[in-house]
Amino acid sequence: MIFDIQIFVLGLVQGICEFLPISSSGHLALLQHFFGFGDLGENLVAFDLLLHCATVLVILIYFRARILRVICDWLCGWFSQEKRKSWGWAYAWQIIIATFMTGLIGLPLRKIVDAMSGSPLAVGCGLIFTAIVLSFLPVSSDRPRSKSLFAVALAVGFAQGLAVLPGVSRSGMTIAAGILTGLGLSEAFEFSFLVSVPAILGASLLEFLKLVKNPDAIFLPDGYIWACVIAFVSGFAALNIMRRLVLLGKWAYFGLYCLAIGASAILFSLEIF
Description:
- With 273 residues, this protein is mainly α.
- Helices cover 72% and strands 0% of the residues.
- It has 13 helices and no strands.
- The longest helix has 25 residues, at 224-248.
């Protein structure tokens, strides 16, 4: 029997960790393991899918003005030569290129991801990798913007594809890739989350199709609606906090946190404690 409080905690963790650079997938995998949900892993796919829908809704609302402009400029660009010179037209193609790269890297890793998700040792290693990346990330971006929007899109897309591995933070990897390829802190923050929308929706669609083929696997625990609500509310708060911390360059705290959680997961998996 799954207790409502545990489902509530999973929703809270999804909302917070989806936006802070500490890996929501890693934290959910560890919590499900320590809550004893291992045997229910496949049955919790529908629940995980709803949690991700709740957090992607946060992004759609938070960046609604930017998203609408990008969509309008891109659609109008097919009919207007003038619109092809707009910011939104180029930005849309950056997102498309990054999404393609994400799929190219992430899809072949799906079987590895499934295996890693059930291993606290593997998740711990992913968190330590995240800690290392955050530790070397500069607190400001004084480098000139990359002249190649294509290069920025490829780098961020590659980072996002790699972040399908549990314990590897999607926001941390993509913001790092953006900064290291010349984006400013604010630009890297915005692009990181806008490029996540098609990736999360695409991954959610794949999971949904799996459920359609196997409806017997659909299982929604008691309290799942409240878990989605808390994921949305906590996610909105976490996204606002993340923006402030990115602009201040406060990476070291997240790196130390990931290092501590990752090391603890490894030690527990090796039964050292």
